[in-house]
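Now for a specimen:

…
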Amino acid sequence: MPDLKVEIDPSEVGFDPDRLSRIDRHFARYVDDGRLPGWLICVSRNGRIAHVATYGSRDVEAGLPVETDTIFRIYSMTKPITSVALMMLYEEGAFELKDPVYRYIPSFRDVRVFSGGSSQRVTTVPATEPVRIWHLLTHTSGLTYGFHYSHPVDAMYRAAGFEWGSPQGQDLESACDTYASLPLLFQPGTEWNYSVSTDVVGRLVEVLSGQPLDRFFAERVFEPLGMTDTAFWVDAAGQDRLAALYLADPATRNAIPSGSFGDAIKRRPALLSGGGGLAGTASDYHRFTQMLLNGGALDGARLLSPRTVAFMASNHLPGGADLEAFGRPLFAETTFDGVGFGLGLSVSVDPVKGRVPGSAGEYGWGGAASTAFWVDPAERITVLFMTQLLPSSTHPIRPQLKQLVAQALVD
């Protein structure tokens, strides 16, 4: 497996080493006072790793430290991988972004939209236009998540068995049919709502490629990129490196063991979730970020063209809106002023509006267990943060990480 280690003196790529150490000192306090079990941070510039640090435990109760080969549940950091997979098929001419989803998943033909009532007695109206593939990639489809707890339709998802998991035995195909049978929150394309849209994207990958999602990922993404430890489940050989999963105590917000909740990743799931199902190492995900930074290629393997990557990393929200204006209340620890959304990625439109330093055009996303990454094409920087605390809205890790990386850049 590729090792994650510093490849260049930070000062050679514009970082002040003393200032980089501020990142480690700041997040060490999160572990020392019990807010996080442990973490891994990786910062690179111009394709060379300038900073790697680990601190704390991958399993507090077992006394096992975070190491560079620790396996983490990346949850929604699966979404950019799934979106890349679909865009690989797009580059082969398999579909158009304006295509209605029902052309490939027939259950989406006659979707209906919530118009009033409660989850018990809902009223609906017909969709004025079909859910299209670009709606899925941009989370403007009208689909939702059961864990939002902000709308009657969210409760309908929970009643159908979709909150932090899925009904026993249900696969991706049947789950997508269930999603299609439930009302949309709004007319497609009119708002943004974080949702199971990327799970439907994963099903489109299956339909269009004729392969199960895990096989497509393995053959077309992970093997070419050398991502040897990323998969939908962690087999027996890798479980000694798997980080334990922690929940935030509602009273203290400190990390407490999740019990059996984190064990699902140890067995092959019936539902291959393109929206949140993967686990992997920081080394693997670093390679994925380098592919994006390089315009779709890494070490001789090309997944996408540079123009497709740039198109994905453009703000696709209507009128150039940001998520704060166009989105429903978001499941996150920060506001989204000045942040738009592309095809499977958040995109910084105006860092000043967000009150956190960065570059316009920077893109990335995070996972429910407080993992995060971003790619900054202007500065040629990638940053990766791995930990295992649910939910990610508990602590302001991501904006703090951004301000600390920015202050270390002195060229």
User: Anything to note?
Assistant: The mean pLDDT is 96. The first strand starts at residue 38 and ends at 45.
